[in-house]
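User: Teach me something about this protein's shape.
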Amino acid sequence: MDGMGKKKLRKELKKLRADLRKVERRLERAQEQIAAVQQAQQAQVAAGRLDIGQGPVEVETVCAPKALLPKTECCGSRKRCARCPILMLKEGTLPDGLTVKHRKLVGADGKRVTKKQLTSVA
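Assistant: First, the predicted structure itself:
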């Protein structure tokens, strides 16, 4: 920014303000769409079209599905796999009571976790 003159700075500021207005308009449209969807759902509940409380309900869980259990040790590759314990810890999908220390999966007590213990935790 040191080499820029006042005219260039003003021009850049004008562009940034225009971009900000565009983003604000997109945000407003998204909020309006969310409100419309919520109102439609409330209308369906009021009309009795949605059966709430009947049948199984899928709930998003913090823990990964059994097919994506974390590995007991990180392989150390630069490109992380989907089951990497370091990546799962970062994303928050690591099962409760588990953490990673020195690229190894450990329990809350700090002891290494075996595959057998891992299936019982998840």
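Now, about its shape. DSSP finds three helices and two strands in the chain. The longest strand covers residues 98-101. If you'd like, I can walk through any region in more detail.
User: That's plenty for now, thanks!
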